[in-house]
Design a protein that fits this description.
The chain is an all-alpha fold. It has 14 helices and no strands. The protein folds into two domains: 74 residues; 206 residues, Urease accessory protein UreF (Orthogonal Bundle). The termini are far apart.
Length: 308
């Protein structure tokens, strides 16, 4: 083969090789460029995804503060609510109960311990007490208390005076009149000295004369705006407790037995209070004739521990 032909044959080969190299270089460059773009896109996406995470991470320390604020707010709201929720006693109710427990406790010096309402002659503590409570002086005193409380609360001076006069005249014997009037007078005097309040003096003056015990309790409780239902329950409980105390000193009746009698009389106290709250003055009356006779005979009894 001539030399010229050989030279002409090699030149295309060199051109072809050069083109292949350029093509491969271009492909590699393209691939590298695409790879760079993809990597850049991945980096951008990673950065975009990481930014909220970094922002969230940077706000993490604020959570304890929000929790602390929420906890403080909850504590303040709890402190503003009454302790015990719906079962809690209102402040006014607690104060009223405190006064009733003080006024009608044995330590309140009205001299209740020195009276037995005729029990000393009978010395019978069972059905005797239940009858006196439901059908005798317990029910009648409850009715007088209720009407006196309502009249005093409504500032019905004339009505209060009539109720006080009727209650004073309702005692069946001289000793029963002494018992209820002496305790009523002592109750008023002590309440004025230690538990006075606006309007009490005017209410007492409306009674215009002897203020018997249930009238005194009703007037003082009304002056202190103590609910009638609570006053009624406390009054009848105190009356029953004093009768049992007298029986305990006479029979003799032990302390445990005394509490048993008081527990047995609980439903009688509750039912008598309900009846007395609904009764009118026309419902006044009793059927405990033996108790009235016992009180009358006690006046001439030779040996006595009690004044009635």
């Amino acid at each position: 083969m001539p030399a010229a032909a050989k030279c002409m044959g090699r030149k295309p080969i060199r051109i072809t090789m050069r083109r292949m190299i350029i093509h491969r270089t271009t492909m590699v460059t393209t691939v590298l460029t695409k790879t760079t773009i993809i990597m850049t896109s991945i980096a951008i996406m990673t950065t975009i995804t990481a930014i909220p995470m970094l922002m969230t991470a940077s706000k993490a320390p604020a959570r304890p503060r929000r929790r602390a604020v929420a906890r403080t707010r909850a504590i303040k709201q709890a402190a503003a609510q009454p302790i015990g929720g719906h079962d809690a006693m209102k402040e006014s109710e607690a104060a009223a109960l405190y006064r009733l427990m003080t006024w009608l406790s044995p330590s309140f010096p009205v001299g209740a311990f020195s009276y037995s309402s005729g029990i000393e002659w009978a010395v019978e503590a069972g059905d005797w007490l239940a009858a006196m409570l439901a059908q005798g002086p317990g029910f009648c005193d409850g009715v007088f208390l209720a009407h006196a409380h309502r009249a005093a609360s409504s500032r019905d001076d004339a009505g209060l005076r009539e109720i006080a006069e009727l209650a004073a005249a309702f005692a069946p014997s001289r000793e029963r009149h002494l018992e209820t009037s002496a305790q009523g007078r002592a109750f008023i005097d002590i309440a004025r000295a230690a538990w006075n309040c606006d309007g009490l003096d005017q209410m007492v003056s409306c009674c215009d004369g002897a203020t018997v015990y249930p009238i005194a309790v009703g007037v003082v409780s009304a002056a202190h705006t103590i609910p009638l239902a609570s006053t009624m329950q406390a009054f009848l409980h105190a009356l029953t407790s004093n009768w049992i105390s007298a029986g305990a000193r006479l029979i003799p009746l032990g302390q445990t037995d005394s509490q048993r009698v008081l527990a047995l009389l609980e439903p009688v106290v509750v039912s008598t209070a309900k009846r007395a709250l609904k009764a009118s003055l026309d419902h006044l009356g009793g059927a405990t004739f033996r108790a009235d006779l016992a009180s009358m005979r006690h006046e001439t009894q030779y040996t006595r521990l009690f004044r009635s």
